[in-house]
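Why does residue order matter? Because the sequence determines the fold. Keep that principle in mind as you read this record.
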Amino acid sequence: MHGALSALLLIPLIQGALATIGYWILGVPNALLWGGITTLVAFLPLLGTPLVWVPICVYLALQGELWQCIVLIVYGALIISAIDNVLRPWIMKGPANIHPLWSFLAILGGLISFGALGLLVGPLIVSLGISALRIYELDVLRSAPSSGEPLAPGATVDRAPMRGDAATE
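Structure:
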């Protein structure tokens, strides 16, 4: 959950900063204002930043600044918009140590199932599922008998102390 919230807040700020730098380098009038607007619309899933940089490209083309238009199209598609796909799974990995592919699939599944709220719900469901599997592995699988014979009802299994047990410290 912490990783999902961090990604939800950090990614638009990073996209806005990258957009502001690109606008400033390419000589877009009021680059700081447009960078701020890009930051705000970056919170919108799927559409986000192209809502700002595409009209700026059209403006640049109409002003006759074609090379700036082309550079902004490439920069906007490959850097401003695509950084979301690279950084979001990496940030969401966070302390839960979830593989970026699972984070990406959780985001997509959450968006499809729950809409914009799915940006939080999807990763939360996946991290709860992974936590449940880890608990099952630590508590159930490691305490199962190794001989393959079933336990008698009411019998317990002696297990070796695990890392973090009071007996090992």
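The two ends are 31 Å apart (CA to CA).
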